[in-house]
Automatic annotation (TrEMBL), chain A:
It is found in: Cell inner membrane. It is a multi-pass membrane protein. GO terms for biological process: C4-dicarboxylate transport. The lineage of its organism: Bacteria, Pseudomonadati, Pseudomonadota, Alphaproteobacteria, Hyphomicrobiales. The chain crosses the membrane at residues 12-35, 88-115. This is TRAP transporter small permease protein.
TrEMBL record, chain C:
This is TRAP transporter large permease protein. GO terms for cellular component: plasma membrane. It is a multi-pass membrane protein. It comes from Ciceribacter naphthalenivorans. The complex comprises the extracytoplasmic solute receptor protein and the two transmembrane proteins. Part of the tripartite ATP-independent periplasmic (TRAP) transport system. It comes from the Bacteria. Keywords: Cell inner membrane, Cell membrane, Membrane, Transmembrane, Transmembrane helix, Transport. Belongs to the TRAP transporter large permease family. GO terms for molecular function: transmembrane transporter activity. Residues 11-424 form the TRAP C4-dicarboxylate transport system permease DctM subunit domain. It holds the Pfam family DctM. InterPro entries: DctM, TRAP_DctM.
Length: 165, 312, 434
């Protein structure tokens, strides 16, 4: 029980930290685009703005994954929710989180492999030549963090006191 | 019967079809008595992002892919020398230039795959909404859409402003005047319907060429029965690449001829004298690019001379 | 089992997983991954997880999504959305369903700003849903109107849908854009008519407000001036070529923050909450788009669209019969596929058939985009419905699907009208281009 609460707390912190990183990236993107638009209007755009925006966007998207789950959840088709018994709904919710945890673990694992491949191929962004590998490694870590948070949700549904929701 | 998956993101009737896919499928089918079949997955059916195209071949999502080295230029620093201003012109043709350098210098840029065709597009030109360019002064402050680092440096060196944007946004951007023009080859005019909104076309100066690859997953190739493997390898290389380049040039000529015949469009062809001030700048950018690569320990000068020295 | 058989089995599994309340994105990942592993091999299937995740998340075209959500959230947090609806309410609140109709008009305006249905539904959803509910509109009507109204994003130019259709078929982008205008206006009118009918038959869904005095009307209008100015600046900037639609969203968000702080309505903690909410919504939406693009290659390899095409071209049922079946298969495929993936998979098969039957390719482009719009709101995989759900967390998905149903009928009516009177689409392009 305490273990579970400890885990839940840790997952909350992890999801929050990743989301703050995502939020900073989002503000960064907005600022870069604004500087680029204003600069271009006066003849000197932000060189390579799009490179920065695209890489930061990946952090926004994956940084927010666990946070999105903990603040309303990823979208489900709830058409049969009323038909199922509370117990069954609880099992199905846990199974859904489990699938999500597996998917994110697989994304994390393959994203790390992709980073190695990117290093091998010397992949980078178009104008600024920002290497792609490090961004894939960040994405991989964020995906693993999401997987961990989803595992916590599974445990909470199976052993937790909160019951079906 | 064995099937090869050929993936690209262009339209099904894109120049790639008659230029590469048809001759290749016909040849391997004939050589194997119809045993080896090429299935085409156009329009990004097997995955959309052009930058991930090479990875898809390496990972076996597709067996063969078409792509632009320019989308991941740091993977192809030496192959992309062919895109620098003047190189295709001096070499006579882009595919010949690439294959002359391939065995000695370029093999390392294609890990996990076997290049089936490598070629260059028609020369880049300026596709302008309404503004004319006749002298260097006309370039000052123009906003030009570019797709890669070298093109960006060329546009900056010429006094204009390089702008990045996805290809699907070019049309609206030209229409609203967000950009004044696009730097690319003439065949793209048809691909992205730019003729509808671009009224001025400027050619003559050395503005480089875009290049292309078709690569095949190495494991897949080596795993094929010997007769099929031989059929693929017999077709791969300069001959197929030539077909690619010839078709691209043919389309570009058709497009330019249509534009010249159209009274509402202006095609400006700068003569060598008018082009000289432009070329002085763009060839300097090329020399700097080569020197940069040399400084990084890459044999860029050697590749350049291999590309531009005709085989004896 | 054949590729088609595996494809159909995959879709059946998807259906079951969705019914068992597996989150939509996870179900699509699972089916895409499994299908690809069977039809190709496991390593390549796994590699898709990384390549598609990264390429969708970093796509230059999709940055528009977080940017517009941010704009909508900032406008909401700083009270500007509220003032906009106060103003709309003062003018037309006394008409039954007036606010919902105003929302449809807002969606149409937003569609002229962005080329994307997802961006339209997200922003308008953020700005309008809680406002409509504040004035007593039912969840069902408000979410239905936003989900359906948002689809206008790809019918009213500029439109990513038309650009992709044009590139795949080599038709004129300019003609397609022009061809989308009248059908877009017609669909807006049909949506408004739908709301009017709902207001008559289910008055509780769309209550009429009290009459307001002229003084109240003008006060509310002045209150809405900042957000009106922001909208004018962003739309104006696009049409004057100062920035692109994607950049317009960032400019709009920036201006909203600036105005909010200047007018004293914005605080750092409100901004933080707008940002965090944007992060959560963007991740939810992008995850579904990533999952859709992991499932795309599986469906391509299964050759389901090609099998449908072969079947259709073999039938002897006249040109309108074939057209009907093609549109029907779009509706069915639209239940499972994301719109652009569907376009890419089917256009090579259906387009030559349509042209050989003598239908006008520009007209067909409009009909197809309209049908794709329907796919965005049909169950079980209706991207726009998911989008609305992502901003209206407490509304049951089934209620949104129910709310969307009358609008779906309006869209069917629009398709029927386009088939009966092709000049609705062709009049403007023919007048302009000859
Ligand atoms: Na639009
Ligand atoms: Na649907």
């Amino acid at each position: 029980m305490t273990m579970l609460r400890f885990f839940a707390k840790g997952a909350d912190l992890l999801a929050g930290a990743a989301a703050i990183l995502a939020g900073i990236s989002l503000l960064f993107i907005t600022a870069v685009i604004l500087i680029d638009v204003i600069g271009r209007y006066f003849g000197s755009p932000f060189y390579g703005a799009r490179d920065l925006v695209q890489m930061a966007a990946v952090i926004v998207v994956f940084g927010g994954m666990a946070y999105a789950d903990r603040n309303g959840g990823h979208i489900q088709v709830d058409i049969l929710e009323q038909v199922f018994s509370p117990g069954l709904n609880r099992v199905l919710t846990a199974a859904g989180y489990m699938i999500g945890a597996v998917v994110f673990a697989l994304i994390g694992w393959n994203m790390w492999a992709a980073a190695e491949m990117s290093a091998l191929l010397n992949m980078s962004t178009n104008l600024l030549n920002l290497p792609r590998g490090p961004f894939e490694q960040i994405t991989s870590i964020l995906a693993w963090a999401t997987a961990l948070c989803l595992v916590e949700r599974v445990l909470d549904r199976v052993f937790g006191a909160k019951g079906a929701k | 019967e064995e099937h090869l998956k050929f993936a690209h993101w262009a339209a099904p009737n894109h120049t790639l079809q008659p230029a590469i896919i048809e001759p290749f499928s016909k040849a391997v089918s004939q050589a194997t008595g119809g045993e080896l079949v090429v299935d085409v997955y156009p329009g990004g059916e097997l995955g959309k992002g052009p930058a991930e195209q090479y990875i898809r071949a390496v990972k076996g999502v597709a067996d063969l892919v078409w792509g632009l080295p320019g989308y991941t230029s740091t993977q192809f620093p030496l192959s992309m020398i062919v895109e620098l201003p003047g190189v295709v012109d001096e070499a006579g043709s882009g595919y010949d230039a690439i294959w002359r350098a391939y065995d000695d210098y370029l093999t390392g840029e294609y890990p996990g795959t076997v290049p089936i065709a490598l070629w260059a597009a028609e020369p880049n030109l300026l596709i302008m909404g309404s503004k004319s360019v006749r002298t260097l002064n006309d370039m000052a402050g123009l906003k030009i859409r570019v797709s890669g680092e070298v093109a960006g440096k060329l546009i900056e060196a010429l006094g204009a402003t390089p702008v990045q944007m996805p290809a699907t946004e070019m049309y609206t951007a030209l229409q609203t005047g967000l950009i004044d023009g696009v730097l690319t080859g003439a065949s793209a005019i048809r691909d992205f319907r730019l003729d509808e909104i671009a009224n001025v076309y400027v050619q003559g100066p050395q503005l480089g060429n875009i290049s292309f690859y078709v690569v095949m997953n190495e494991k897949k190739l080596n795993g094929l029965p010997e007769n099929m493997r031989a059929a693929v390898l017999a077709e791969a290389g300069p001959a197929l690449s030539k077909s690619g380049e010839d078709n691209w040039n043919r389309v570009a000529e058709e497009v330019l001829a249509e534009l010249e015949a159209n009274p509402n469009k202006t095609v400006i062809t700068l003569n060598p004298e008018e082009s000289a001030p432009f070329d002085a700048i763009t060839l300097k950018v090329r020399d700097e690019a080569i020197a940069d690569l040399d400084a990084k320990g890459l044999p860029a000068s050697k590749v350049l001379s291999a590309m531009t020295t005709a085989a004896q | 089992m054949s590729g088609v058989g595996i494809g159909v089995a995959g879709l059946a599994v998807l259906f079951v997983l969705l019914a068992l309340r597996v989150p939509v994105a996870f179900a699509m990942f699972l089916v895409g991954l499994g299908g690809m592993a069977i039809l190709n091999d496991l390593p390549s299937a796994l590699s898709l997880l990384a390549s598609e995740s990264f390429s969708v998340a970093s796509s230059a075209e999709l940055i528009i999504i977080p940017m517009f959500i941010l704009m909508g959230n900032v406008a909401t947090e700083s009270g500007m959305s509220r003032k906009l609806y106060d103003s709309a309410y003062a003018w037309i609140g006394s008409i039954r369903g007036g606010l919902a109709s105003a929302t449809i008009l807002g969606c149409a305006g937003f569609a002229a700003l962005s080329g994307s249905s997802v961006a339209s539904a997200l922003t308008m959803g953020r700005v309008s849903l809680s406002q409509m509910n504040r004035f007593g509109y039912s969840h069902r009507l408000s979410t239905g109107a936003v989900a359906a109204g948002g689809t206008l994003g790809i019918l009213i130019p500029p439109s990513t849908g038309f650009v992709i259709y044009a590139i795949l078929t080599r038709e004129s982008i300019g003609r397609l854009f022009m061809a989308g205008i009248l059908p877009g206006i017609m669909l807006v009118a049909l949506f408004v008519l739908t709301i009017w009918l709902i207001a008559i038959f289910r008055p509780a869904d769309a209550p009429a407000g009290e009459r307001t005095t002229w003084r109240q009307k003008w006060q509310a209008t002045i209150g809405a001036a900042p957000i009106t100015l922001i909208v004018i600046l962003t739309i104006g900037g696009i049409y004057l070529g100062v920035f692109s639609p994607v950049e317009a969203a960032a400019v709009g968000a920036g201006l909203s923050v600036l105005f909010g702080f200047t007018l004293g309505e914005m605080t750092v903690s409100k901004l933080a909450s707008a940002v965090m909410d944007t992060v959560a919504t963007s991740s939810t939406v992008l995850l579904i788009l990533i999952a859709a693009s992991v499932m795309g290659p599986f469906l391509a390899l299964s050759h389901i669209p090609a099998a449908v095409g072969d079947f259709l071209t073999g039938l002897d049922i006249g040109r309108y019969g074939v057209l009907m079946l093609i549109l029907l298969s779009y509706l069915v495929l639209g239940c499972f596929l994301e719109g652009f993936a569907m376009l890419v998979l089917t256009m090579p098969i259906f387009f030559p058939v349509i042209v050989s039957l003598g239908f006008d390719p520009i007209w067909f482009g409009v009909v197809v985009v309209l049908t794709l719009e329907m796919g965005l709101i049909t169950p079980p995989v209706g991207i726009n419905v998911f989008i609305v759900k992502s901003v209206a967390r407490d509304v049951a998905l089934i209620d949104i699907f129910r709310g969307v149903f009358p609008f779906l009928l309006a869209m069917l009516a629009a398709v029927a009208l386009l088939i009966l009177f092709p000049s609705i689409a062709l009049l403007i392009p023919q007048t302009m281009f000859g």
